[in-house]
UniProtKB/TrEMBL annotation:
Keyword NAD belongs to the record: yes
Positions of the Prephenate/arogenate dehydrogenase domain: 2-282
EC number annotated for this UniProt entry: 1.3.1.12
Organism the protein comes from: Streptomyces omiyaensis
Pfam families, alphabetized: PDH_C, PDH_N
Gene Ontology MF terms in the entry: prephenate dehydrogenase (NAD+) activity
InterPro entries named among the record's database cross-references: 6-PGluconate_DH-like_C_sf, ACT-like_dom_sf, ACT_dom, NAD(P)-bd_dom_sf, PDH_C, PDH_N, Preph/Arog_dehydrog, Prephen_DH
Ranges of compositional bias, category Basic and acidic residues: 257-272
Domain ACT: 294-362
NCBIfam families: PRK06545.2-1 (NF005109), PRK06545.2-3 (NF005111), PRK06545.2-4 (NF005112)
Location of region: Disordered: 253-284
UniProt family annotation: Belongs to the prephenate/arogenate dehydrogenase family.
Protein name: Prephenate dehydrogenase
Length: 362
């Protein structure tokens, strides 16, 4: 791949463009808002000038409701050798293209399983897709050359290709992406009118659960409108679990010992099933989940402290697998939780203490 056209310069489109441009591909940027394309170009994602001829791959990164129309326009104009979209739903756009009577041999659907709660070109990064699954949903007629272009795109973005049927993909993302967004928003909504004394007690648990609730509602309305049935099916199962859990908790309030025992068993059941489900979530780079040990360090709110602790960990020869930061309510300090290989934890703890860091029990 030498040339690409990115249509839609939001988070995903600009991130893909940054990755391609950084690896020597000439990228042309197009957006219904020219200012967005200019911003992406200023970030180094390519040029907002129109290509002089046909490019190798056109990447359509617009909201699901507009994918089919944007693809059809580009395909009818002969803009590229191959066409690919990155929408978070796949079945609907594919059926729309088929209904238009278009030749789908140069088209392949795709969905990079990566994102942020922020949107727009300024949120984009070249490493957004690194190590993350990138689903490809070829049609019955997708040309081999186009599949190879898509695989090259995934490789240049350092993602992991996964080939799926379009409708199977939509059922999968309803479970692992779309429903979590709604559940996160529902939990966060409980905080809107909560007493200030309760909100001040928020710790890492509530921050983890509600992080994606900060996402743009307009974007999610478009996504959910394109995949309502599968999401409703998953939520129906969640609702059944909620009903059972509510009944179990009410039973725990009973004066009857047998009812309290049944209530405890009901709560334990959902917690244990949660353990089992969580254990299936892939870890780093799609591998089986690893059991890391946490080294918790008290850190001040002074500029440069995070950079210093990472540098000190690097000097200790320890790779930080994951990190979490918990701010202390009302104080200019926080707790940095460094997740590392269990065998490396003692050496890291000793090294950080010798360099003046104060460690805490996480």
């Amino acid at each position: 791949m030498r040339t690409a056209l990115v249509i839609g310069t939001g988070l995903i489109g600009t991130s893909a463009a940054l990755a391609l441009a950084g690896r020597g591909v000439t990228v042309h940027l197009r957006d219904h808002d020219p200012a967005s394309a200019r911003t992406a170009a200023a970030l180094g994602a390519g040029t907002d000038a129109e290509p002089e001829g046909r490019v190798d791959l056109a990447i359509v990164a617009v909201p699901p409701a507009h994918v089919a129309a944007a693809l059809a326009e580009a395909m009818r104009a002969g803009a590229a050798r191959g066409y690919l979209d990155v929408a978070s739903v796949k079945g609907g756009p594919q059926r729309e293209l088929e209904a238009m009577g278009l030749d789908l041999t140069p088209y392949i659907g795709s969905h990079p399983m990566s994102g942020k709660e922020r949107s727009g070109p300024l949120a984009a990064t070249a490493d957004l897709f690194e190590g993350r699954p990138w689903v490809l949903t070829p049609t019955r007629t997708t040309d081999t050359e186009v599949l190879n272009l898509a695989l090259e795109l995934v490789a240049l973005c350092r993602a992991v290709p996964v080939v799926m049927d379009a409708d199977a993909h939509d059922r999968a993302v309803a479970l692992v992406s779309h429903t979590p967004q709604l559940v996160s928003s529902m939990v966060a909504a409980r905080l809107e009118e909560a007493e200030e004394s309760a909100v001040r007690l928020c710790g890492q648990g509530i921050r983890d659960v509600t992080r994606i609730a900060a996402s743009d509602p307009r974007m999610w309305i478009e996504i959910l409108s394109a995949n309502p049935g599968p999401v409703a099916d998953v939520l129906s199962g969640v609702a059944a679990d909620l009903d059972e859990t509510v009944r179990a908790l009410r039973s725990l309030q009973s004066e009857d010992e047998e009812k309290r025992r049944d209530g405890a068993e009901g709560v334990e059941d959902v917690l244990r099933r949660g353990n089992a489900g969580r254990a299936r979530v892939p870890g780093k780079h799609g591998a089986a989940p690893a059991a890391y040990e946490t080294v918790a360090v008290l850190i001040s709110d002074r500029p440069g402290e995070l950079a210093r602790i990472f540098a000190d960990a690097g000097r200790a020869g320890v790779n930080i697998e994951d990190v979490r930061i918990e701010h202390a309510t009302g104080q200019q300090a926080g707790l940095v939780q460094l997740m590392v290989d269990p065998q490396a934890a003692p050496a890291l703890s000793h090294s950080l203490q010798s360099q003046g860091w104060s460690l805490r029990t996480p």
